[in-house]
Amino acid sequence: MASSDQHPTAPDGVGRFHELQQELAPQRRAPYRLTADIAIPPVTRGQLRALRATRDDDEQMAIVLGTHADAVENLFADRPVDDWYAFQRDLYAHLFGQGAAELPGGSAGS
């Protein structure tokens, strides 16, 4: 028989997982609101794992933007590149904390 450690579950209101969610709730990052139609949610553990699997800046940005990737790319397609870089810096500061692009593994363009 498989142990619960091999197939963890997190029923509502039970265990440390639930307690951590309650502790973090007041400080949880809000989605990054780019436009009325584009709200980029906080990055998930799965997205972080996907980010580590690629070094391509465009692929990394698509992972972070998720379902909004095409809409965001279209929004900036005809804008000066400085607008794109400013957006990236602001997005990464919001999602990962100020100075995230300067961390090892970060890049000025993404």
Q: In words, what does this structure look like?
A:
With 110 residues, the protein is mainly alpha-helical. It is 46% helix and 4% strand. It contains five helices and two strands. The protein has helices at 15-24, 45-52, 57-65, 69-76, 81-96; strands spanning 32-33, 39-40. A two-stranded antiparallel sheet has the order 1-2. Strand 1 (32-33) and strand 2 form a beta hairpin.
Chain-wise SSE layout:
Layout: H1 15-24, E1 32-33, E2 39-40, H2 45-52, H3 57-65, H4 69-76, H5 81-96
Antiparallel strand pairs: 1-2
Q: For the report, how would you describe the main beta sheet?
A: 2 strands, antiparallel
Strand content: under 5%
Order of helices and strands: HEEHHHH
**Contiguous uncertain segments of 5+ residues:** 103-110
- Could you say which structural class the secondary elements and strand pairing correspond to? mainly alpha
Number of contiguous helices: 5
Q: What labels describe this entry?
A:
single chain; 110 residues; mainly alpha; two-stranded antiparallel ribbon; 2 strands; disordered C terminus
Outline of this structure?
By secondary structure, the protein is mostly helical.
